[in-house]
Specification:
By secondary structure, this protein is mainly α. The chain is built from 13 helices and no strands. The longest helix has about 35 residues, at about 55-90. It is found in: Cell membrane.
């Protein structure tokens, strides 16, 4: 009975705080609701969606979509590769490894504003450490203001800020692998690379799946660091989530008047994209788990 009550309470909270807002966003996407007071709200059908795919907006939205994919897949790839390397290293019997684990996890507990401030100071084009290092080679850069460099720097900061959680997940997976398997591999004369390829990675597949899904879903919806580091109107780092924020709360972008209805329509488009990519990624990784 207690379990049933707990389940009912949990489901009620999920419906209240997840399903109901999602349905309301869908409803709002069919209206022209705006933040200005005393304006009547009208039902406009699919007009917001037609605006998103219209010739006037398609260039801006495709650019934001391209930046979203570049950001998400680059962050997912580099964060998982680096996190796996660090986790394998920290899983060894090293002096001070607990301190090293704490240092690796530290960026996770910092807020977005703190991280943004830290890297804004580091990459300050006037007097930051990066600018001084650049100047030592006779070079200068605007860093986050450089359209050729801004996205790469934002990806770097995003990977740095989120790598702690990925390392913890990989460490948990590594510690669940029976040490006897490595002993058998040593007896067979396996090299470190062969043990990684034939023992560690196959048994770590569930952790890879969890990390990849968490990372790619989070990155596809991320905009906070981009907003703090490069602002809301930098074309080089404009992503779909940031377009939703600026349309709904931070001022009109891409030639349209600020509208919560249009922002809701973009969020529904983003939801569909994230769902398709997530489900396709999950299916692919599950098939790979089976193959391994």
């Amino acid at each position: 009975m207690t379990a049933q009550i707990s389940f009912a309470i949990g489901m009620s909270l999920i419906v209240l705080f997840s399903l109901v807002p999602a349905v309301l966003i869908l409803v709002i996407s069919f209206t022209d609701i705006r933040s200005l007071p005393y304006l009547p709200t009208r039902f406009v059908g699919v007009e917001n969606y037609l605006t998103f795919f219209s010739s006037a907006q398609i260039g801006y939205n495709l650019s934001a979509l391209k930046n979203t994919f570049v950001f998400a897949f680059a962050v997912t790839f580099f964060q998982n590769v680096i996190a796996l390397f660090i986790a394998v290293l920290l899983n060894q019997r090293l002096v001070g490894r607990n301190f090293a684990r704490a240092v690796v996890f530290l960026p996770t507990i910092l807020g977005v504003t703190v991280i943004g401030l830290i890297f804004s100071l580091i990459f300050n084009p006037s007097a930051g450490p990066a600018a001084e290092l650049w100047a030592a080679f006779g070079q200068s850069s605007a860093f986050f203001g450089d359209p050729n460099l801004a996205m790469a720097l934002v990806i770097f900061v995003q990977v740095w800020s989120g790598i702690g959680v990925a390392v913890v997940i990989y460490l948990a997976g590594l510690q669940a692998i029976p040490p006897e398997l490595y002993e058998v591999a040593d007896i067979d004369g396996a090299t470190n690379w062969q043990k990684l390829r034939n023992v560690t990675i196959p048994l770590l597949a569930p952790s890879v799946t969890a990390n990849t899904l968490l990372c790619i879903i989070g990155a596809l919806q991320s905009y906070q660091l981009i907003y703090v580091l490069t602002g809301p109107i930098n074309p080089a780092t404009q992503v779909l989530s940031l377009a939703i924020f600026t349309q709904g709360f931070g001022g009109a972008q891409g030639g349209t008047v600020q509208s919560q209805g249009y922002a809701a329509a973009i969020s529904i488009v983003q939801f569909v994209i994230v769902a398709i990519i997530s489900l396709a990624t999950l299916a692919y990784l599950r098939s790979k788990e089976t193959a391994l």
